[in-house]
Hints:
250 residues; globular; seven-stranded antiparallel beta sheet; mainly beta; disordered N terminus; 43% strand; ten-stranded mixed beta sheet
Amino acid sequence: MISKNSIVPAFCLFSLLFTVQCALSDEQEGQPADEDGVSMFNGRDLSGWDGDARLWFVEEGVLVGETTEENPAGANTFLIWEEDEPGNFEVSLNYRFVIVGDDVYGNSGIQVRSERFINEETPELMHRVRGYQPDMAISDWIPGILYEEGKRGIMARRGQRVLVDAEGESHAERFAEEDDLGEHITHTDWNEYHVYANRDTIRTSINGQLMHELIDQSPQAVREGIIAFQLHAGPPMRVEMKDIRIRLLD
């Protein structure tokens, strides 16, 4: 886990790199995907997606991931987009959680540049994914972090810019306080989620607020892969998504 107070000798190098990154950002990022992109979801069915049909479905034009006492997730499971495995892109969507059980619980995320895998201990669970995951959850600290599912864990906390250098060392710089950014996330109302992935950078915003930025130059960095939505194992939960769009940057 990255320390909130990480101070490293490479800070000057990181600052220089970030200055260059910011200078390019306006030209690279462009408009959000919902302004200039294509729909990833037709609003009628799961055409183009692969997931556990017990847990993923479409209801009134909304993509729904739901677990119940009768239909739990045996492990974190994913709805996988089968149309492409892009490298440089922007994805936008609207999401919210709906309380369905006694626990106020919801945990999901957007896998980007990720890969499918089979766990030898649970080979019957087919929809497993690992890789970069901008998170969403009913939680004080999880929504807005960048987690690497099944690999390195937390890559950037909410309010952090993180450079992972060529040796795999993480250098963090705080640009905003976690609690301040958390006030912009509503959990059970619709939230606008935007993920930008271009070259070595992954940047996520919720409701127009930058949540984190990762510059991954390490040997473990991945530059392309699948996009998927997570449904976390645990108590019953329901996540809803709509207006899902992608804009390729290549």
